[in-house]
């Protein structure tokens, strides 16, 4: 049990509130001889001196290592079962032109799900054949552009999209490769909003309709059917859901082989990462091994050849690589009643960012870790809540963790594992400009995305022109 009764049951008071849990922080994050956090050879203070706060700091070597690892792991494990794998980086987690180039250099494809994401990938010089297009409501214009650039695959999400893709393929004289997204009904062990394969969902077509829909796809010479696609959720720590999803997909996959080729099977992604010390994430090697075993077992059960498998990791590549650094503005001790008579102190530490740069705690109730970044301290640990500066009581970045009790205004604090769904879901709530993103490597930093300024925000306001 924690010494503070306000702490959640999973959180224990640390012996050292300065320690960095390796599973949560990027590979090249550590404390230097002065006690300050440094990432890839640059201290938090040095980064902030040049770029300000809040700021997302990407450990470049960490990202590239994870991308290389996932590619090598899936190559090795699927070769072991007599097949191969396509790995697509899920760009919705985080995408810039430079990150897109990193993924291509590592041998990955890139999955996009909007015209904007497609535009970023193309601006990075990515060959359309290395891209896949997702989405439950792809516009006619998005489909047209995707087909025009020779996109490697389009994931069909509804009957309506078949005609739209056919029309674009005719227009450009192409045979467009497509996958069909299936709602398998498998319930991933994740947050309700992150589970994307339950029966009552906007994504995909029911498994029971798959054969009929594929027959329609195959009736069009403008389309080339690659296979079925499934995605059961995000932030998943176990493989049971994938086992059941694969079995259900193989029931249809086997039947479809009786009437035509089905070269691929896409099992999606959603592999979880550690946000706190109690999160136990599977390694990329273990994920690849389990996926290969799952596919081999299902293929053997149904008596069909092992297909080429596609997967779409995003969070597990970019998520652990990034740390967000903030400056503390105010600190206040709040006396909270516990039970009928007892009280306890919760220390509120307010920072210069919040739900506009990390919406996940407010949206999903997600938990995070935090450490003082600009120094270390021998002060006794205190239970803290890291609060944002927005006019919302739910604007919390870290619900509960321990920091040295002498945390004070002007300190820099760092929140790790903020690479996925942070910058990509950032907003301008309360007219805050979105933070910059910098990549650090070998003691040097370079800008991936610049900070938004007030002028950027005003530039879209048509009324400013008339003043």
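^ structure tokens above, recovered residues below v
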């Amino acid at each position: 049990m924690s010494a503070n009764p306000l702490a959640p049951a999973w959180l224990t008071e640390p012996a050292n509130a300065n320690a960095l849990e390796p599973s949560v922080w990027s590979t090249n994050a550590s404390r230097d001889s002065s006690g300050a956090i440094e990432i890839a050879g640059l201290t938090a203070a040095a980064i902030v001196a040049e770029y300000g706060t809040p700021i997302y700091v990407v450990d470049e070597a960490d990202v590239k290592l994870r991308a290389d690892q996932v590619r090598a792991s899936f190559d090795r494990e699927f070769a072991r079962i007599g097949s191969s794998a396509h790995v697509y980086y899920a760009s919705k987690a985080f995408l810039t032109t430079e990150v897109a180039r990193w993924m291509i250099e590592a041998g990955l494809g890139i999955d996009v799900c909007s015209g904007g994401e497609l535009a970023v990938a193309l601006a990075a010089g990515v060959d359309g054949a290395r891209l896949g297009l997702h989405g439950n409501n792809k516009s006619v214009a998005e489909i047209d552009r995707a087909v025009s650039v020779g996109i490697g695959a389009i994931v069909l999400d509804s009957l309506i999209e078949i005609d739209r893709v056919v029309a674009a393929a005719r227009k450009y004289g192409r045979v467009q490769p497509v996958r069909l997204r299936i709602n398998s009904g498998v319930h991933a062990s994740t947050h309700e909003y992150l589970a994307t394969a339950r029966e009552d969902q906007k994504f995909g077509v029911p498994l029971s309709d798959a054969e009929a829909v594929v027959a329609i796809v195959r009736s069009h010479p403008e389309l080339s059917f690659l296979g079925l696609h499934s995605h059961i959720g995000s932030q998943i720590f176990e493989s049971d859901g994938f086992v059941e999803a694969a079995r259900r997909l193989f029931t249809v996959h086997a039947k479809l082989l009786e009437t035509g080729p089905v070269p691929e099977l896409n099992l999606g992604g959603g592999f979880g990462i550690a946000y706190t010390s109690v999160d136990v994430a599977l390694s990329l090697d273990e994920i690849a091994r389990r996926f290969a075993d799952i596919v081999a077992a299902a293929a053997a059960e149904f008596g069909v050849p092992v297909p080429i498998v596609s997967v779409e990791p995003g969070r597990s590549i970019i998520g652990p690589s990034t740390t967000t650094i903030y400056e503390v503005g105010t600190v206040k001790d709040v006396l909270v009643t516990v039970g009928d008579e007892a009280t306890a102190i919760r220390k509120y530490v307010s920072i210069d960012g919040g739900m506009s740069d990390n919406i996940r705690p407010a949206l999903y109730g997600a938990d995070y870790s935090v450490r003082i970044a600009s120094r270390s301290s021998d002060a006794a640990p205190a239970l803290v809540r890291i609060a944002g500066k927005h006019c919302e009581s739910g604007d919390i970045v870290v619900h509960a963790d321990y920091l040295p009790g002498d945390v004070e205004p002007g300190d820099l604090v760092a929140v790790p594992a903020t690479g996925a769904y942070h910058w990509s879901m950032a907003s301008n709530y309360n007219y805050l400009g979105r933070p910059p993103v910098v990549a650090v490597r070998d003691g040097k930093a370079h800008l991936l995305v610049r900070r938004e300024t007030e002028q950027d925000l005003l530039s879209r306001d048509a009324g400013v022109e008339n003043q």
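The two ends are 60 Å apart (CA to CA).
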